[in-house]
């Protein structure tokens, strides 16, 4: 598996994975992925040895130099490839980018997604809020989680 910047040629496969994983909660459309890439976020593709997309993740970057903020907008791994460390690799790569900017990271996660919550907590995220009926149309609740800003020097030390 290798990580590389998400390209427009990957979007069709992203949409297929979205439909598999998030069918009950308005999976992202191709237009949504195009808009995210147009906005200039930090999006990554996880590719298998044959170059097929098996996962993706995206970090929105907002603010100005010295006052950056980031939001983890999406992270997903094809069901056939879950449990192999791909989600962890994607998350760590996004967090490395946030660390380069000394930026905090904010995300929302379904309250019933114990696997994702545990992953985020292992990487320094804390629950800071609850968004009732955040996911639609299912009406599932979400935790808001935050990882404080870290400078690259703190991570290396």
Automatic annotation (TrEMBL):
Residue ranges of domain N-acetyltransferase in the record: 1-150
Organism: Saccharomonospora glauca K62
Protein name as annotated: Ribosomal-protein-alanine acetyltransferase
Alphabetical list of SUPFAM superfamilies matching this protein: Acyl-CoA N-acyltransferases (Nat) (SSF55729)
Stored CDD domains: NAT_SF (cd04301)
Keywords recorded for this protein, A-Z: Transferase
Superkingdom classification of source: Bacteria
Pfam families registered for this protein in UniProt: Acetyltransf_1
Record's keyword annotation contains Lipid metabolism: no
Matching InterPro entries: AcTrfase_RimI/Ard1, Acyl_CoA_acyltransferase, GNAT_dom
Record has Methyltransferase as a keyword: no
Molecular functions per Gene Ontology: N-acetyltransferase activity
């Amino acid at each position: 598996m290798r990580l590389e910047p998400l390209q427009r040629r990957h979007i069709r496969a992203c949409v297929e994975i979205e439909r598999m994983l998030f069918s009950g909660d308005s999976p992202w459309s191709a237009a949504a992925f195009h808009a995210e890439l147009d906005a200039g976020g930090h999006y990554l593709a996880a590719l298998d040895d044959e170059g097929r997309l098996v996962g993706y993740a995206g970090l929105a970057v907002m603010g100005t130099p010295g006052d950056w903020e980031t939001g983890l907008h999406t992270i997903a791994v094809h069901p056939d490839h879950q449990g192999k460390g791909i989600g962890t690799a994607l998350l760590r790569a996004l967090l490395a980018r946030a660390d380069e900017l000394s930026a905090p990271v904010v995300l929302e996660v379904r309250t019933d997604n114990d696997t994702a919550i545990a992953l985020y907590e292992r990487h320094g995220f804390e629950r800071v809020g609850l968004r009732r009926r955040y996911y639609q149309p299912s009406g599932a609740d979400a935790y808001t989680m935050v990882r404080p800003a870290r400078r690259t020097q703190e991570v290396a030390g």
